[in-house]
Design goal:
Largest sheet: 6 strands, parallel
Oligomer: single chain
Number of helices: 9
Strand content: 25-35%
Radius of gyration: 36 Å
Number of strands: 14
CATH class of one domain: Alpha Beta
Length: 232
């Protein structure tokens, strides 16, 4: 699709959808700053909104702040937990309503999600003359959504640009290494690994013990000896 600098664009990010797609596919995080840069592509950015869910995790405030620093306006809602333990955290309706409200001020709506529930929104916007682009992971995106939109960018096409590898804790990696070490190895006080070898002293003591046992057997007094059923 041809993109020109005079187009007014609005970017709407389904953060939950992107977070779990990146985690499940590549054990990584999405670089939302790079996603926004590619989405805008030198055009006029009117609105960039990131829709997040608050689950009470300690790292959430810093993550939300990072999104804001990258140019996103964050919209948040609390995680809903129902009586049976079922949890719900989606922004399908909220994103759709905001995109429709903004559509009169936009030439292009860019959805950063692979959720097929947005197909009716795509059809509505296109019917009213708005171009729709989607940026997501093709492997976890609805095929119908990809088919309907005017342009699709697969984040898997450039993982170095769009993904940030999850860091592994040093303590976790150390525990994993210990678990994988052979049972025949032991760790020395300096932190190096040594193989267990039979003790030389143990092997040397074995003949001595045998010799001592033989001496005790020979020196034992014989009180009687039976020959042909009689005692001498």
């Amino acid at each position: 699709m041809h993109k020109h600098k005079d187009q007014r664009v609005g970017v709407f990010v389904d953060v939950q959808n992107m977070y779990y797609s990146a985690k499940n596919l590549y054990n990584s995080y999405v670089n939302f700053g790079k996603v926004l840069e590619v989405a805008v592509a030198g055009r006029k950015l009117i609105r960039a909104a990131a829709y997040v869910v608050e689950a009470g995790l300690p790292e959430e405030p810093s993550f939300f702040k990072a999104l804001q620093d990258q140019g996103f306006r964050t919209e948040s809602k609390e995680l809903q937990i129902f009586a049976g333990g079922h949890k719900k955290a989606d922004w399908d309706v909220g994103i759709s309503v905001d995109a429709i409200k903004m559509s009169k001020q936009l030439d292009v709506v860019i959805l950063v999600t692979g959720d097929g529930d947005f197909v009716p929104l795509v059809e509505y916007l296109q019917y009213h003359g708005v171009l729709v682009e989607v940026i997501a992971f093709e492997k976890t995106s609805s095929s119908k959504l990809i088919e309907k939109v005017d342009d699709f960018i697969d984040l898997s096409s450039d993982m170095k640009k769009f993904l940030i590898k999850a860091r592994v804790s040093r303590n976790t990696s150390a525990r994993t290494a210990v678990r994988r070490s052979p049972a025949s190895q032991q760790t020395s006080s300096r932190g190096t690994t040594q193989r267990r070898t039979p003790s030389r002293n143990t092997s040397a003591r074995t003949p001595v013990r045998r010799a001592q046992t033989e001496r005790r057997t020979v020196s034992r007094p014989i009180s009687s000896r039976r020959v042909s059923g009689r005692t001498r």
